[in-house]
């Protein structure tokens, strides 16, 4: 028998324009979220990509202990509250509510960082003077026994939609998310295959960048790394674009107890792609707790490929990244020519 979820009876039926901050899990689930709301007739508004000004605004309303990525997220929230979000046509649009889900876990050994579970409360309390209207739902399969589908069903009921329409929106959203992930994984496979078909002497250096999507693909955080690698003539492969299910299964060759799902996927992708790349760049936003443990373990236990670990913090930002990338690439090129030998 399906579990019944108590709803707050269409308390958000008047919400027609939904603002989604361009940070954190936006980089993982934006296709799912956008499809769900648009199928239910809502207009999605997203603010501009991150800049130093975004970070400065978020930093001003955050406690020091928050990681750089969380402070960036707060900056995106402020941009939406200030009416600086854009609708799909690119027009400035105020929002009726902010969509900020509470995401704890998808089951055993599929946890997210605790900040994702606390995010609605973090925003509400940090910006209490602005009285932000927050549209949320919970995903917590271990404690509250609420799955993603059940959380979305509750959200649809709060929006005043009929159950059959909500189910159709969920089906479209999950299908769209799966298709988007498959397209990324297929493009990655095709790129690697095309590189390996080249004569060995003509192949570019292939660098695997392993980082949370909101670090790897945020222009303020990871943009400098990608730019520096490409400027050095390297081809960039992202660990988060590898097939997630296969990466998760592969991660158990590394650890039977690692609790965080995204870190598991990144580790699994590193293992799966290890022999197809020339070097690995691990990126983290200071002071990320899961990354501090996982990245250190990877550097200690994954051998046979040079690894560069980069930590971006609030003080230095990406200063010095270009120099470290250039040195790393020089080492890889020297190794390609037989300058270093390793097991």
Compose a concise summary of this entry.
This protein is 46% helix and 12% strand.
Structure commentary:
Residues 17-240 form the DUF2229 domain. Pfam families: DUF2229 (PF09989). This is Acyl-CoA dehydratase activase-related protein. It is a single chain. The chain is α/β, with parallel strands linked by helices and 343 residues long. The protein folds into 2 domains: 17-176, no CATH class; 198-336, Rossmann fold, CATH 3.40.50.11890. It is 46% helix and 12% strand. The strands form 3 sheets. A 4-stranded parallel β-sheet has the order 2-1-3-5, sandwiched between helices. Strand 9 (279-285), helix 11 (289-301) and strand 10 form a beta-alpha-beta unit. Helix 2 (52-60) packs across helix 3, helix 8 crosses helix 12 (321-336) and helix 9 (244-250) packs across helix 10 (261-273). It is globular.
Helix content: 40-55%
DSSP summary, beta strand count: 10
Sheet with most strands: strand arrangement:
2-1-3-5
User: Which overall shape is indicated by the principal axes computed on the Cα atoms?
Assistant: globular
Low-confidence stretches: 1-7
Count of the domains = 2
Q: What is the helix tally?
A: 12
| Protein structure class | alpha/beta
How large is the share of residues in beta strands?
A: 5-15%
**Secondary-structure element series:** EHEHHEEHEEHHEHHEHHEHEH
Largest sheet: 4 strands, parallel
Intertermini distance: 56 Å
Q: Average pLDDT, to the nearest integer?
A: 92
Radius of gyration: 21 Å
């Amino acid at each position: 028998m399906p579990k019944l979820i108590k709803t707050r009876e269409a308390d958000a039926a008047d919400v027609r324009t939904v603002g989604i901050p361009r940070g954190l899990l936006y980089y993982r689930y934006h296709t799912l979220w956008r499809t769900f709301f648009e199928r239910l007739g809502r207009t999605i508004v997203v603010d501009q990509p991150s800049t130093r000004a975004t970070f400065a605004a978020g930093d001003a309303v955050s406690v020091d202990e928050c990681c750089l990525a969380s402070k960036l997220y707060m900056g995106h929230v402020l941009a939406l509250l200030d009416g600086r979000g854009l609708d799909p046509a690119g027009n400035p649009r105020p929002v009726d509510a902010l969509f900020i889900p509470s995401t704890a876990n998808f089951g055993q050994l599929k946890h997210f960082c605790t900040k994702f579970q606390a995010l609605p409360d973090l925003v509400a309390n940090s910006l209490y003077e602005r009285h932000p209207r927050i549209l949320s739902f919970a995903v917590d399969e271990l404690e509250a026994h609420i799955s993603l589908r059940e959380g979305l069903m509750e959200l649809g009921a709060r929006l005043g939609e009929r159950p059959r329409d909500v189910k159709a929106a969920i089906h479209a959203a999950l299908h769209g998310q799966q298709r988007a992930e498959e397209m990324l994984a297929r493009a990655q496979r095709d790129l690697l295959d095309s590189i390996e078909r080249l004569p060995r002497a003509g192949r570019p250096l292939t660098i695997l960048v392993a980082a949370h999507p909101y670090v790897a693909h945020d222009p303020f955080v990871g943009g400098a790394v990608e730019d520096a690698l490409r400027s050095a003539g390297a081809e960039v492969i992202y660990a988060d674009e590898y097939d997630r299910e296969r990466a998760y299964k592969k991660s158990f060759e590394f650890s039977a107890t690692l609790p965080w799902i995204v870190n598991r996927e990144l580790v699994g992708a590193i293992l799966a792609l290890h022999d197809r790349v020339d070097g690995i760049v691990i990126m983290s936003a200071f002071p990320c707790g899961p990354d501090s443990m996982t990245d250190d373990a990877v550097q200690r236990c994954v051998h046979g490929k040079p690894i560069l670990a980069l930590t971006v913090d609030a003080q230095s930002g990406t200063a010095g990244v270009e120099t470290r990338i250039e040195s790393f690439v020089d080492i890889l090129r020297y190794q390609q020519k037989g300058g270093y030998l390793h097991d």
